[in-house]
Specification:
three-stranded antiparallel beta sheet, alpha+beta, 107 residues
Length: 107
């Protein structure tokens, strides 16, 4: 993923049971990206948050890929799309471009 300057490689979440608390760590190989500390049990909510964080680079990559494909479709076939639908699609593309840029630090 060329646009992403963060930790490269597949991110994974791992549950760790320590002496006085539990945590979920997200990392790639030897690099730790973040820890989610929990005093008692690791809830489904914490697991879901960790999974979302761990898949963030892949989600970003697919969003960028999808945006490029939609942009190409609009460029090639935009004249064949109903005006209202065309405006909806271009608004989605504009918003996705903004969110993608925010996520990679290009504000």
């Amino acid at each position: 993923m060329k646009e992403f300057n963060g930790t490269q490689g597949k991110w994974e979440s791992v549950e760790i049971d320590l002496a006085d608390y539990k945590q979920v760590s997200i990392g790639s190989g030897e690099k730790i990206i973040c820890h989610l500390h929990i005093e008692n049990e690791i809830s489904d909510e914490v697991k879901a948050n960790a999974q979302l964080i761990a898949t963030a680079p892949e989600l970003l990559d697919k969003c960028i890929e999808l945006r490029k494909q939609l942009d190409t479709i609009i460029t090639l076939y935009g004249c064949h799309i109903e005006a209202k639908r065309y405006n909806e699609i271009t608004a989605i593309l504009t918003n996705s471009f903004k969110v993608i840029n925010e996520s990679i630090g290009r504000v």
